[in-house]
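chain below, 153 aa
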Amino acid sequence: MRALLQRVSSAGVTVDGESVGTCGHGYLVLLGIAPDDTEAQAERLWAKIRNLRVFDDGEGKMNLSLMDVGGEVLVVSQFTLYADCRRGNRPAFVGAARPDVAIPLYERFCALAEQDLHHVGRGVFGADMQVSLVNDGPVTIWLDTDELSRPKR
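prediction:
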């Protein structure tokens, strides 16, 4: 499971010109799911995101977590995080899970966030979405559950 995490002042997603999900101060989470991903990986990834200390404290240091600042999230499914660009100029997406695997894990990830936060916005799985955001910092972090489970070098 992969997430591109962006600290935002605000973010929103529209489908066919209609707003379907928003968040204020917190994270836009672009979430990619691989065929062999599990609920345990969704739980590990959410725990990492929830506890990452990348919000400024009173001294301007990135020392506070999403929970510490009462932040919000907008979670948008993003199969293109599994783009394979090694050959040619047209990406292959064979590394992304099919909807029958991805949708339940996307829903599980969102449900985990909803257990911890007062506001969780969502995109629409599989829809042509337009995402807008005000990146705060900017702070953008790449997380991959395969890398999170590897021993530190």
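The longest helix spans residues 99-116. The domain at 2-143 is CATH 3.50.80.10 (D-tyrosyl-trna(Tyr) Deacylase; Chain: A;).
thats it, cya
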